[in-house]
């Protein structure tokens, strides 16, 4: 059974001005249930991750300031909103959902987190609405527990996974692949193992050609036994922040390329949903739900 991490806190308690994009965390499972793609038993609510697991990835002082809500105001502005205890708990549950998903993926081929993809958080910083880097923490968890030997992180959010690249810059067992807008946030990029910077306005055909070419390269170079996939839908032409011009059909084919590659190679993958900021929430939800629709066709 394909398992999906979800929790009521995923959509709360974000400050005014950030709530609209977060509606998707409630609407995605509702839509999948409505369509009959999933049942309630597909959903699970993760507990907060243990502090010791967080510290496999993040700096002790940074984590202590997050936990005690004493992160300096300048650093909170870099994250994008002021901290509160519920936001910290939210991040801890998101992270545990991704970790739990790794085991479910090993059992069933694939697992999802309705939230996650917090790829701008680095070893000792938060940025771009990201406090803890869920997939990086989960990757280090797998390595630490000797559950995986070589990991590939595929980041197809429109923004570079700068935090992920920084965390694993000296870790040869983790290969980071980021395909992102060259002139988009973050404006100071880190170096992934494979970066594919895209000019503004890239459309379906060019994007998908580049993805197929570079995904093959990423698999050949990394030889992974586990894959993390960040499937942000801020690559849509309708996205307010993306600057890339994919149709929903193109975005769906992007997901199909990644999922088919993992299925064919029999490599388990965990999927975190990443960003999406289209003006119409229906575009965001439908594009994310396409990822689930594909997965349920392929893996069940």
UniProtKB/TrEMBL annotation:
The keyword Coiled coil does not apply. Keywords: Hydrolase. InterPro entries: HDAC_classIV, HDACs, His_deacetylse_dom, His_deacetylse_dom_sf, Ureohydrolase_dom_sf. Residues 20-288 form the Histone deacetylase domain. Belongs to the histone deacetylase family. This is Histone deacetylase.
